[in-house]
Amino acid sequence: MGDSAENQYTDFRSVAVDGLPFFTPKQRIPVGTAILDPENGITEETITPAFRPITIRGKTFQNRIWVAPMCMYSCQDGMLSDFHVAHYGQWAMRSSALITIEAAAVTLRGRNTPQDAGLWSDNHIAPLKRVVDLIHPQSQKAAIQLQHAGRKCGVCPPWLGLRLVPDEFGGYAKDVQGPTAEPWNENYATPGEMTEEEIWETINGYGQAARRAVAAGIDVIAIHGAHGYLVHSFASPAIVAAYKELEAGGFGKLCICVE
Ligand SMILES: Cc1cc2nc3c(=O)[nH]c(=O)nc-3n(C[C@H](O)[C@H](O)[C@H](O)COP(=O)(O)O)c2cc1C
Q1: Stated pTM of the model
Q2: CATH number for the domain harbouring residue 148
Q3: Catalytic positions
Q4: 149 in ligand 1 pocket by Cβ < 6 Å?
Q5: How large is the C-alpha radius of gyration of the chain?
Q6: Domain assignment present for 3
Q7: What is the C-alpha to C-alpha distance for residues 102 and 87, in angstroms, rounded to an integer?
Q8: Does residue 179 form part of some domain?
Q9: Ligand 1 center to residue 164 CA distance, Å?
Q10: Tally of domains within the chain
Q11: Which residue from 70, 147, 148 has its CB within 8 A of the most atoms of ligand 1, so it is best to mutate?
């Protein structure tokens, strides 16, 4: 029978989730689990597929209603706050089996906006852990997306028009990096063409950010490879054609996508 919450419960006392700075009762059945009733024809085959459990790489999710990464542009210095505890906590309490925390910049230069979430320093671990510590006791799993926004760095949030932030308002147009010196379009900064050294610094940034995410208890890590951000822009056919190394059979600067 083991050590399940079910066995530890008494008729009159809820069992606490261990290791938290607050009391929350252990769930006997993870919230968001379909309750099957085969005698009445309710089986995994007859329920809606969204509620069929799924196991991927040893992690079991009780349903497939997962929250996509969604930037909130609401951080100071990349730190998650009470806002994020409430924001992500609401999905956990409403039973999404996997909640993806918004894109977090792996380097300071990799922020899309100055208010992006970040994981570029060890100081970001504790605020992220607070969010994870609310998600886990609700029987849900936590993912985070790691990001470098590449040529799209240094703009204001969408509700301010995604315009380049001037230096005097905390902008960092001169630090923007890309695979070549071509801007995304005229509204964005002209990036510096990344050197191999900068590319390896960034790859290392991804590695360190992943380590920090794991230290905070994150279950799943996603790499942002879309939206014209850094990894995406290196994978563009226009950029690939620019790299002679590829012709020579190596990955050259494209190691950023592979590593
Ligand atoms: C407010 C908002 C913020 C988003 N931020 C991100 C993000 O951080 N990373 C990402 O890959 N996609 C982001 N997206 C895209 C969503 O993750 C998702 O892919 C998109 O909404 C399409 O999914 P849907 O058809 O279920 O809405 C964002 C979308 C919204 C609405």
Answers
A1: 0.91
A2: 3.20.20.70
A3: 229
A4: no
A5: 22
A6: no
A7: 11
A8: yes
A9: 21
A10: 1
A11: 70
